[in-house]
Amino acid sequence: MNDEALYVTRDDEYGNVGSAIIQDKRPDILAAGIAVGFVGSNKEKVVSRNHVVFGECKKVDEIYKLYCPYDFLIIIYEANCTGFTEEQMKTLIWHELNHIGIDDKGKAYKRTHDVEEFDDIIREYGMHWNR
Ligand SMILES: [Zn+2]
Q1: CA-based nearest residue to 39, from 57, 64, 61, 21
Q2: How far apart are alpha carbons 40 and 10 in whole angstroms?
Q3: Taking Cα atoms as reference points, which of 97, 72, 79, 76 lies closest to residue 21?
Q4: What is the structure's pLDDT at 103?
Q5: What percent of the chain has pLDDT over 90?
Q6: pTM
Q7: Residue 91 alpha carbon to ligand 1 centre in Å
Q8: What whole-number distance in Å separates Cα of residue 72 and Cα of residue 35?
Q9: What is the CATH class of 3-125?
Q10: CA of 124 relative to ligand 1 center, distance in Å
Q11: Per residue in 1-51, pLDDT tens?
Q12: Ligand 1 centroid vs 111 CA: distance in angstroms?
């Protein structure tokens, strides 16, 4: 399998950014042969009043792999990212790639966030007040 094939995307722009980030910051994804597809969506995804979704990382179920040649799909909700700088978009894509975890046996899984906290708490006590 050549490296190009790992990054064939439905959205080449995100795919190119994602490919560069994988090589720079997550070479373990490359080494494990995990295929990541990138999709742009104009859906305005909202979880709650103060929680707009910028992007999402979905692990592809085994049965869907019969038709979808990727292990994970990263979806960028473009309508919610209007006005993002190039740097913010790169950070978003890196964030989504960090949802790809690889266990001791080399098996991929969907990783959850290291930190979930309120702005006020972070401002006053820092990100790691509980560690
Ligand atoms: Zn996340």
Answers
A1: 57
A2: 8
A3: 97
A4: 95
A5: 69
A6: 0.86
A7: 11
A8: 7
A9: alpha beta
A10: 23
A11: 334 333 334 678 899 999 999 999 999 999 999 999 999 988 888 888 878
A12: 9
